[in-house]
Amino acid sequence: MLDSSSSAGSISATLQIENNDGLEAGQTMQALMQIQHEFEANPTLRAHVDLHVMVQPHGTKRSRLQVGRNVARLFSRSPYVMHTPIRVLWLAPLTMDDTKRDLLDQGQVLVVPTFAFPPHRYSTEQPSFPTTREQVIEWVDADRIGLMDYHWELNGGPTNYDQWEVASEPYMVVDYDYHYGPIYITTKEDHPWCEERFEDQLPACVYATYLNGADFWVLPDTFVIRSGQEPENHLPYAERVIQDGMYKNYRIEQCAFYARQFDQLQVYNTERGTHVKQECAKALKNEKIIQ
């Protein structure tokens, strides 16, 4: 789990609870009072965590993570936001130097590489994992962990392990794909919000940010360790199929939106419009709208 005691910065978190009989119902009020009690009893939580409680209608099956991501970002104390999953084993120290701040202030995105265990290699009984960059490289060389990008095999995704292994400065992601959904850092303002028509589709957040003109820069001096057992999302298979179909339509829709917006702003033929041109051409060709 994400540990507030390991972070010197602030954590903005969203907690969604089910409302059975109205906001003033006994069960709901009891849950809210319990949350308040546990929060106030922990000095570390009070110092570092802003907890945003969302009461959901009765019968809500799951947390709407896209909404939760937006709420956490909206109420963040910091001008920079790291979009982090709750379940992580280790988050290496992250130092915000001038190079990172300059990239963020220019509208770029920083990617924090995620390393995970191959299937059946993670033990919940005696979990051990690397905590330094040097140890990470040793473990990857021994096939004990790998750089994880969902939709790709370990070490085979756009984050590019071969480049991370030798990098000393942030490097750009050059093989972007609309399935890409890394842990990433942006400014709080001036980036698109996560599309809330989806329950849990992190790549949609990344896709809109990419079309809006941001480049993605991978950080070589930090990383996250996860077990590798976490699914990309928690949707049942049938709902995942529906969401994947919606995402394909969303891909075309966003291409049209940004192409038209950039044309009106007269930036379509500038460097900012490069991603729109590239991704729209791929999307239209993939859907056989153009040859």
From TrEMBL:
GO molecular function: glucuronosyltransferase activity; xylosyltransferase activity
Main subcellular location: membrane
GO biological process, one term: protein O-linked glycosylation via mannose
Keyword Lyase set for record: no
Record keywords, A-Z: Glycoprotein, Membrane, Signal-anchor, Transmembrane, Transmembrane helix
PANTHER family linked: GLYCOSYLTRANSFERASE-LIKE PROTEIN LARGE (PTHR12270:SF25), GLYCOSYLTRANSFERASE-RELATED (PTHR12270)
Designated name of the protein: Glycosyltransferase family 49 protein
Source organism of the structure: Hesseltinella vesiculosa
